[in-house]
Design brief:
The complex is a heterodimer of chains A (286) and B (127). Chain A is built from nine helices and ten strands. With 286 residues, chain A is α/β, with parallel strands linked by helices. Chain A has a single domain (3-172, 189-279), classed as Protocatechuate 4,5-dioxygenase, Chain B, CATH 3.40.830.10. In chain B, β1 and β2 form a beta hairpin. Classes of the chains: A alpha/beta (286), B mainly alpha (127). Chains A and B meet through α8 and β9 of A and α2, α6, α7, α8 and α9 of B.
Amino acid sequence: MSQVAGGIFTSHVPGIGNAIARGLQKDPYWKPFFDGFDPVHEWLAKEKPDVAVVFYNDHGLNFFLDKMPTFAIGAAAEYRHEDEGWGLAFQRPFAGHPELSWHIIEQVVASEFDPVTCQSMLVDHAVAVPYELCWPGTEAFPVKLVPIAINTVQHPLPSPKRCFDLGRAVGRALKSWKGGEKIVVFGTGGLSHQLEGKRAGFINKEYDHFCLDNIGPNPEALLRHDSLEIVELAGSQGVEILNWLAARGALTGDVVELASNYHVPISNTAAATVLFENREFLPASA
Amino acid sequence: MNAGYAESGKRQIFGTEPFDGDLAMRGYALNAMCYSFNAKDNRDAFAADEEGYMARFGLTNEQKAAVRNRDVLAMLDAGGNVYYLAKLAGILGLNVQDLGALQTGMTLDAFKAALLSHGETTRRAAA
């Protein structure tokens, strides 16, 4: 039986990738963010997951606006990051897990979701940066990837409830997977930030804390706002919290926060990293 | 929520225009050009001949003018999506703080200071 061991939720700002490429992890500007990964590294070393299911949004590397899926699930044997326009391409490939991808696709379609399926896809900084943060260095990544892309770019976006329910369907699929792998779920992006318009630079710490306080114990609280309300509250890119909501939905056991780091600002973003353990419900003893 | 609504029925959010179907249609050529900048050869081709490159992608006059003037707000008005415009910004040597300053009318230092004014680090760890 597979086991969903936990969840890693983190910002994925491209600037983090540049900082990694330039070795700035100990730089005073960056250190408070990177230090948030110490407990994540300890947990990964202890748990040694085999698979990462990553909920993220593509920013114009794999998908253009000519064909823009609301939900897309990768089913490739391998994925790669490439230059997104500023000359930085991470070199380590991402091994895929097509059998598990197709199992998830089968199960979520049975749950009446209609994802686009991708046997070939590039993954952008929203996957590559969290991987680099979790497994720094040059060794091959120790996990197989199932990427699940959510449209947070072109409105209408899927509703927060729809994303959470997609995550729950993925969580059920993971529980029914017969393989023996240990699985970690990722939600990437956020928290509050806005890159464009006269409100560029917008940050809302009150809403961020609301998300951080509730995403673990009470994720339904985040469903009280629709996607445009989240744009207003979190900024037009802060709506990436949808990826967190989907990932949280995939954690179907008792969810316990092990560590949380909220650091403002990095680049134009209120950044956060949260580590959850997912403990299986124990049946009541007879 | 206190969001207002325009006559179009769209929600009004200060300083924010959610990138929807109207903008996606209006901005298609500009965004398609910017998407091409994922490839270095295309970035170099644009830098070598901006007018020729814009013509190749069929940018509207409004979009061309916005690019010529390095006017980010005008690019957004012309349907540019910030994720794609970020690729153009890279060619122009602008990062997201530069973009923020240009759009808000602040100096770069003032924009950075505004971000730092939110400064906070809050850490929790399970016992």
